[in-house]
């Protein structure tokens, strides 16, 4: 396993992992006393093990993924960080499962670690992957995939999961190649749709206008309304946590679900956008591989630009859906109450449960 630079955890902290070795750096001036505490529970009071201390703020530890998950906090002479963990869960056969903890709200609170997760499909998990998710205490899975997708690639059974929610928002372009059996068939189908004129000419470029239109449509469509209401109501039942919501690749349907949840919790818009963009960073190598496969099927540069726009996570994509909410409703709470069926009491209870003081 190569060195894995974990995406943003909390402000002032960097995390890197290389196989079973982990490096944690506190981005502060050296010469002060730093103590690193570690444990397997996302409860700060349970992290009583002093793993290391020094005056540099740089910690290197042997922490096997087979014994995770791990959570940390750092104590200094006159400060103490919030609890934090590894953003991307280190699974062998799912690359985009990640913890939604550590995001800052407009009022200075942070989303808690170890309660809310987003991801790609869980159909190819290894035994080690399943055991890690069970150690995380995963209770609920919200699956945005269509019935056909779930039949083709059923999720692995996870012993701790007691609730499964099927919530298909019927995203038009997310479903474009969902019926394909494998990656080659998926790519061939997408190129064939372009060659046969099944995609409007105005979209065949790199601007991603079809993505923007779909994201705006998902804010208001009846199918999406039902799906994302089911998701948020599952989150409102806090006994369902820890909970993961996912689709096939963890980009579009899950990206919208994550935006809705973080917006409901009051997370800063820029944090929401960065959470969405992370999928593109995590899938950079995979997306380059897909580009090379596309090139084997077509040399039409407009086709290639269109295909790549569909798998990218551009800020303007998720921003379009956020802007659509503000176009239609005076406040985000109005959207969640009037359109998605939550009560204002449920929203406040969710904030109390899923947020902590920063």
UniProtKB/TrEMBL annotation:
It comes from the Bacteria. SUPFAM superfamilies: (Phosphotyrosine protein) phosphatases II. InterPro entries: Prot-tyrosine_phosphatase-like, Tyr/Ser_Pase_IphP-type. Belongs to the protein-tyrosine phosphatase family. This is Tyrosine-protein phosphatase. It comes from Candidatus Enterococcus moelleringii.
